[in-house]
Amino acid sequence: MIVASLFIFLTACEDYLDVNKNIDAPDYVEGYLYLAGIQQSYFGVYYEIRGLGPMTQMMGTTTSAYTNFANHYYAQGSDACGEIWRMTYWNQGMNLENMINQSLAAEEWTLAGIGYAIKAYSWDMLAKEHAELPMKQAFVDGLLSHDYDYQKDVYKQVREWAYKAIELLEKEDNKDYGTKISANDFIYQGNKAKWIKFAYAVLVRNLASLSNKTNFVSDYAPELIQCAGKSFESPDDDAVVKIAGGSQSAPYEDYNNFWGTAQKNLTYNYFQHEYAVQVFTGTVPKYDEGTGEKVRTEGNDYYPYELADKQIICDTLVTETGHYDPRVAAKLATISDPEYKNIDNADSVKRYKYYGGSFTGASGPIGTAPSYYGRRIASEYQGSIHDGKGRWLYHDEAPYILTTCAEIKFCLAETYWKMGKKNEAFEAFKEGVKADLDFTVRYLMPGTVGKAEGGDKITKKVFNDLAIKYQAGPFVEKLPMTDFSLSHIMMQKWVALYPWGAHEAWVDMRKYHYDIEYTGEYPSKGNGWDVSTVTQKWDTNPSKVYKGFYLAPAQVQGRKSSYNVKNEGSPCYRIRPRYNSEYMWNKASLEALKPVSGTADNYQCSIPWFAYPGEVPAAVK
Question: Parallel, antiparallel, or unpaired: how do β-strands 400-403 and 524-525 relate?
Fold first, then answer.
C-alpha cells in the first residue's frame, strides 16, 4: 500500500509540475495564431529609422543616442539601432520558426509560404544592415554562443527562402482555413497572388543591392528582371501592415503608428534634413570647387544661394507647368499656411516654404526646420491650435510601409541602366515616378480649410492635378534622353523611399560608396578619406549619383567637421550588432570575424560584401 501510494503521489506530482501542459500557459498554439504578432512587429523598422534617417540625410535628430548615428558612429553600451536585430531574432524569431514548421507538418502550404516570404524579407533587411550574422545556429537549442555567417551566405539563403515561399504559395492547398489567415494577415488578408508578388519583390530588393558588383550584369541582372516582371504591377500591390489605430481613444498608444501624434515619437526630436529640402524643392546649391563655399545671391531672402545648373527632381520655377513636385507637400513639413486657409489652392500650395535642419540640430542654413507636423513646438493633439491625429505617414492610423511598386520599378530601371538598355531604363523610371505619386496621395490626410487642427496642407484633388502635370513635365515624361542619367533613377528612388525606406536608401548610398572620390576598387584611408575629411565627387562630375549629397566631413561649406577618431576618417558602412545580445553574451564569435573583428573600434566602418566590386579582401588596411 505504501509503494502504491508513493507511485500515485509521484504521478500526480509529475502532472502538477508539467507546466508545459498548463491550459493557461500552453507551449503549443496553432500556426495561424502566430501570424498577427509576427506582422505587427514590423513597427520596429520605424524605430530603426531614428538612426538610419540621419545617416541618409533624410532626417536630423536631437535625441542623444541617435545623434551618434547622424555622425556615422554608434551609441556605446546601448541597444540603439538594434531594433531590426531584436525584431528578427526575438519578436519574430521562434514564433516565425514555429509557424513555418507547424504549417509544413500540417501541409498548410499557404501559411507556410507566407511565413517563408516574411522570413526572407526580414533577414534580407537584417543582413543589409549588419552584414555578418548568426544564421545557421540562430535557433539551435541549447547553444550559449552562436557562430556568425558571412553576408554572402546569408544573401543566398534569403533568396532560397523567397523561392521556397513562391513554391509553397503556388502549390495546391485544399485546407479549409476559413478566416484563420484572412483575419490575422494584416498585409494581404490571405491573398496568395499578392504574397507571391511580395516574395518576388524581396528577390528584386536583394539582387538590386548587388548592382555595383563587377559581375552584376552577367550573374544577377537577368534574374532581377525576371523577378520584377512577376512582382508588383501597381500601388495596389504595395506591402503595408495595417494597424488598429484609434488615436487618443485607443486602449494602448502602441495601437497607433509609431510616427503619429499619439505615440509622441516625432514631436520635435526628428525633423527633415536640409538635403531633403534641397532635393524636394529643387534648391541643391552650387559650390565653388576652389573653396567649397556656396555662392551667395541677392534679392532672395528665402534661398540666398546660387543653385546648381541641373536639378534632378524639380526646380523653383513653380509658375511653369510641370516644374513643381507635389510630393514635397506630403513628405516634408512646412510652417506655411498655419491656419489651413489655402490647402485647396494650387498656386498657394506651390509657394509653401520649406526649411531643413542639420544632422543634430533643427537650425539649418536658411532657417529652422519644423516638426513633421508643420510647427516648431512639440506635438499637441488638442487645444485651439493643434496637430490632431497627424498627417500622411505621420498619422496615428497610417500603416507601416514594407515595400512598394515604385521601389521595385526603380530597381528595374537601375538594372536596365547597368545593362546599357537606356530606353527600357527610362520606361521603368517613368513607371516608378507615377507609382510613387499614386502611393503618396493614397495616404494623404488633408486638414480642414480654415482650421488649425492638423492634417496635410494639400487636398487630394490639388495633389492629383499637380501630379498629372509633374508626370507629364520636364523632369519625367519630357526629360530629354540626353540628360537622363543614373542620378535621375537613384534620386527619384531616394524620394520614393522617403522616409519609411531609409534602410534601403542607405543600402544604395553604401553600394555607391557615398560618392566618395577614390581610385582603385573601393575607398580606404588615404584613398577617399583621412582622419579629418572625406573627399567626395563634385556635383559636376557625371559619375556622381546623389547630386548635392555631402557627408558631414566633406570639402564643402557646412560640412567641414570630423568623425569620431575611432572611425579613422571613414563613414559608417554597417550597424554594429545589438549590444545586449552580442557584446554581452556572444563576444568570442564577434572577435573571430574577418577581415575586421566585430570588437574592433572601427567595426562599424567595415565595408559589407554587397558593396565590394568583387569578393571581400583577406585583409583591410
Answer: unpaired
Give just the sign of the alpha carbon dihedral 267, 268, 274, 278: positive
- Check pLDDT > 50 for residue 399: yes
CB distance 127 to 158 below 8 Å: yes
pLDDT at 431 over 90: yes
- CA angle 26-30-33, nearest 5°? 95
Q: Assess contact for 255 and 246: CB atoms under 8 A.
A: yes
Per-residue pLDDT reduced to its tens digit, 150-186? 999 999 999 999 999 999 999 999 999 999 999 999 9
Tell me the three state secondary structure of residue 342. Answer: coil
pLDDT at residue 474 greater than cutoff 90: yes
Mean pLDDT, rounded, for 537-553:
97
**Average of per-residue pLDDT across 37-61:** 97
Here the cell at position 120 is 526572407
Alpha-helix residue ranges (DSSP H) falling in 131-266: 151-169, 192-208, 221-229
Contact 596/197 with Cβ under 8 angstroms? no
**pLDDT given for residue 7 in this prediction:** 47
Q: Which residue has the cell 543616442?
A: 65
Per-residue confidence (pLDDT) for residue 6, from 0 to 100: 47
Cβ atoms 155, 127 nearer than 8 A: yes
In sequence order, what are the beta bridge partners of 614? none
DSSP E strand stretches across 329-470: 390-391, 394-395, 400-403
59 three-state secondary structure: strand
Is the Cα torsion angle 541, 546, 548, 552 positive or negative in sign?
Answer: negative
One-letter amino acid at 127 equals A
| Buried residues in 191-212 as b, exposed as e (16+ CB within 10 A) | ebebbbbbbbbbbbbbbbbbbb
Q: What number of other Cβ atoms are within 10 A of residue 397's Cβ?
A: 20
First to last CA, the chain: 79
Spacing of C-alpha 72 from chain mean position? 17
Give CA–CA dist 4/303, Å, rounded: 93
Are residues 117 and 165 in contact, defined by beta-carbon separation less than 8 angstroms? yes
Residue 370 to residue 377: CA distance in whole angstroms: 8
In the structure grid, which three cell numbers stand for residue 294, read together? 556656396
Bridge partners of 516? 536
* pTM exceeds 0.70, yes or no: yes
What are the pLDDT digits (tens) for 577-593? 999 999 999 999 999 99
Cα 473 from Cα 325, distance rounded (Å): 10
Say how many CA atoms lie within 13 Å of 180 toward its Cβ.
Answer: 15
Cα–Cα distance between 146 and 133 in angstroms, integer? 9
The alpha carbon of 526 is separated from its chain's Cα centroid by a whole number of angstroms, namely 31
Q: Looking at residue 15, what is its pLDDT?
A: 52
Q: What pLDDT is recorded for position 547?
A: 98
Let me know: does 322 contact 475? Beta carbons within 8 Å: yes
Q: How confident is the model at residue 301 (pLDDT cuts 50, 70, 90)?
A: confident
